[in-house]
């Protein structure tokens, strides 16, 4: 099908490759497939205008097609300038008739123009990964607030921004924080980020991890996934944290824990996953060894102080795709991957489809839930009801062929009573 939908993409002729890769990802997304089949029958999003700001990947394509199957009128733009898979964007536009505004490598002006283009059809629901649609609507396009009834948010960093807005009384409509579902953060953040971050570092550099000192900044669900996988590859993993409980968990999980100032001179590879800014700052860069590799897997590109790195450098050259060599005045060279943007999406393909299956099942069900319930909700951040979260886990287990026990009537009564003791 050649559709004439509004779009701004790199190259429509890439569509055949995109179609094949979208189908490949679909094989690993059985939960989303089930939801899509039901959406097709029940049309829960019929006629609802949606703007989605997500990484434009094969997995996102399967989500967008699910929303469309449910009757939604969807527009898609990128949630990061480097994460767009141009063949997927081409397939979505030319084969599936979805308006997409996303080009891999777009500059900041184009990135924000694309966000505005996704908002042009006056969305009633927004779907964010990092809260850029919400931020743009609230800061620059307030006239759109009259149409929007609700939204969803994918990621930890976005939820932090949205909670700050809600606390200030500034949030204009209810949002479901998909990240808070157990079937999202326990799997996507841990196993997805864990695998795809290592994948990004290896694809970019082809370095051996075994024997390297691998510094992980942040021991949230993403950080612990990366730490676990790096250890599995034989690296000596060091964790840095600001939260005493998480630091203690890292110690008892068997990692060395120390401040970044102490990790800086000993690390071979650094990865930031904190959601905060300047976690690797000028003084850390000044202390690093010649040849240290720097990567970020947090949502925004401000976790490594790239501006300070550029100011400190006498020269910069792209030594390999996704690897920039910064030559410092004293002769040391530091290597920045993916320009300090999400290394798993910039240098690899993001999380594998099998975990995005659950994340995007949450997104699809959250869209349906907020479309049904927005009138009863306040201008707050909500979690998806636990029954829906549990249902996603049940469907995933079923698809994996794993069966579990159920409570007997006696056990159910025992758990519900307070009179029975020893
Ligand atoms: N975030 C992390 N990995 C992703 C993927 N494969 N698709 C969409 N968003 C992602």
Quick structural overview:
By secondary structure, the protein is α/β, with parallel strands linked by helices.
Shape: globular
Please count the helical segments: 17
Proportion of residues in helical segments? 40-55%
Q: Tell me the CATH architecture of the largest domain.
A: 3-Layer(aba) Sandwich
Main sheet properties: 8 strands, mixed
> How far do the termini sit from each other?
69 Å
Provide the number of structural domains. 2
> Which hetero compounds are present in the coordinates?
adenine
- Give the number of DSSP strands: 15
Side-by-side strand order of the widest sheet: 9-8-7-10-11-14-13-12
Report the CATH superfamily of the largest domain.
Adenosylhomocysteinase-like
- Sheet/helix structural class: alpha/beta
CATH topology of the largest domain: Rossmann fold
Rounded to an integer, what's the Rg over CA atoms? 22 Å
Low-confidence stretches: none
Estimate the mean pLDDT confidence: 97
Strand content: 15-25%
- Determine and state the CATH class of the largest domain: Alpha Beta
């Amino acid at each position: 099908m050649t559709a004439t939908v509004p779009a701004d993409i790199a190259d429509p002729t890439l569509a055949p490759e995109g179609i094949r890769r979208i189908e490949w990802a679909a094989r690993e997304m059985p939960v989303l497939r089930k939801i899509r089949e039901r959406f097709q029958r029940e049309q829960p999003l019929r006629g609802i205008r949606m703007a989605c700001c997500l990484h434009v990947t094969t997995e996102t394509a399967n989500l967008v097609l699910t929303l469309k199957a449910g009757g939604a009128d969807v527009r898609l733009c990128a949630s990061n300038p480097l994460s767009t898979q141009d063949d997927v964007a081409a397939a979505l536009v030319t084969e599936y008739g979805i308006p997409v505004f996303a080009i891999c490598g777009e500059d900041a002006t184009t990135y924000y123009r694309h966000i505005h283009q996704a908002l042009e059809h006056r969305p009633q629901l927004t779907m964010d990964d990092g809260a850029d649609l919400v931020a743009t609507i609230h800061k620059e396009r307030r006239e759109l607030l009259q149409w929007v009834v609700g939204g969803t948010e994918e990621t930890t960093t976005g939820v932090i921004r949205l909670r700050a807005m809600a606390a200030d009384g500034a949030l204009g409509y209810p949002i479901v924080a998909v990240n808070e579902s157990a079937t999202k953060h326990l799997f996507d953040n841990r196993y997805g980020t864990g695998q795809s971050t290592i994948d990004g570092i290896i694809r970019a550099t082809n370095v051996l991890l075994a024997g390297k000192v691998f510094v992980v900044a942040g021991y949230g669900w993403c950080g612990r996934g990366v730490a676990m996988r790096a250890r599995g590859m034989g690296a000596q993993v060091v964790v840095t944290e600001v939260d005493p409980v998480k630091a203690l968990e890292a110690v008892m999980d068997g990692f060395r824990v120390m401040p970044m100032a102490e990790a800086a001179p000993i690390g071979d590879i650094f990865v930031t996953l904190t959601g905060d800014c300047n976690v690797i700052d000028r003084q850390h860069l000044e202390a690093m060894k010649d040849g240290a590799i720097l990567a970020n897997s947090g949502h925004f590109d401000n976790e490594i102080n790239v501006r300070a790195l550029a100011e400190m450098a006498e020269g910069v050259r792209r030594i390999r795709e996704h690897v920039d060599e910064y030559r410092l005045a004293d002769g040391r060279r530091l290597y920045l991957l993916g320009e300090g943007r999400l290394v798993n999406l910039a240098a690899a393909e993001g999380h594998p489809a099998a975990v995005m299956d659950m994340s995007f099942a949450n997104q699809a069900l959250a869209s349906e839930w907020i479309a049904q319930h927005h009138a009863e909700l306040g201008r707050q951040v909500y979690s998806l009801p636990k029954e829906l979260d549990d249902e996603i886990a049940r469907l995933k287990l079923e698809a994996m062929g794993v069966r579990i026990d159920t409570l007997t009537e006696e056990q159910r009564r025992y758990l519900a009573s307070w009179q029975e003791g020893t």
